[in-house]
Specification:
The structure is a single chain. The protein is α/β, with parallel strands linked by helices. It has a single domain, classed as Dihydrofolate Reductase, subunit A (3-Layer(aba) Sandwich), CATH 3.40.430.10. Helix content is about 20%, strand content about 30%. The chain has 5 helices and 10 strands, in the order ββααβαββαβαββββ. The longest helix has 10 residues. It starts with a strand and ends with a strand. One of its GO terms (molecular function) is 5-amino-6-(5-phosphoribosylamino)uracil reductase activity. One of its GO terms (biological process) is riboflavin biosynthetic process. InterPro entries: DHFR-like_dom_sf, RibDG_C, Riboflavin_Biosynth_HTPR. This is Dihydrofolate reductase.
């Protein structure tokens, strides 16, 4: 069965973005980048990977899930299909009829994310990457099999939390790997117990 992997950068105070969705404070240079770009090459936007010469042919993901706000970050720059090397599913209830122009391998849906993930897990294929955001992660908390957290050495003070506050019971995960980099970024990986 395919895994749902929540692979995301997070601040020390638990935010995946600032209060207005900004994420430009996250470190994108340093010794952590080459290791992450090698292991998670398919989590780099298609055009950026091509510009950097990153081979995305053998990655661990074949599908990426994101909420509308995560997806919309690239729209002002014309990125209507940011990960077109993957099947992209964007969840929204209010932007179904937006004219986004050409968007290869991208589906916008108002389906229940849990039902979509359960259907994806039953299909053959590689892992499914949960890109963000916190509201979607909270909806999918019981479907997440693996967490890969890129803890950044910064505090946002306020922002979008890794998981939105919600009425869910505690979940247990087991740490399987942690790597600290000179940049100050610490990548920790956990699997559901």
């Amino acid at each position: 069965m395919r895994e749902l992997v929540y692979y995301v950068a997070v601040s020390l105070d638990g935010c995946i973005a600032g209060p207005y969705g900004e994420f430009d404070a996250f470190l994108v240079e340093g010794d952590h980048m080459s290791a992450q770009n090698e292991r998670f090459a398919d989590a780099v936007p298609t055009d950026l990977a091509a510009a950097l010469g990153i081979d995305q042919s053998g990655g661990g993901f074949d599908t990426v899930l994101m909420g509308w706000n995560t997806y919309a970050v690239g729209l002002p720059m014309g990125a209507t299909s940011p990960y077109r090397h993957l099947r992209q599913i964007v969840f929204t209830r209010s932007h179904l009829d937006d004219d986004l122009g050409e968007r290869p391998n991208l589906e916008v849906t108002d389906e229940d994310p849990v039902e979509v993930v359960r259907r994806l897990k039953a299909e053959p294929g590689r892992a499914v990457w949960l890109c963000g955001g916190g509201q979607l992660a909270t909806q999918l908390v019981d479907e997440i099999d693996r967490l890969v957290l890129k803890r950044q050495p910064l505090l946002f003070g306020a922002g979008i939390p890794l998981f939105a506050p919600g009425a869910y019971e505690p979940r247990a995960f087991a740490e399987v790997a942690t790597t600290a980099y000179e940049s100050g970024v610490v990548v920790s990986e956990y699997v559901r117990r």
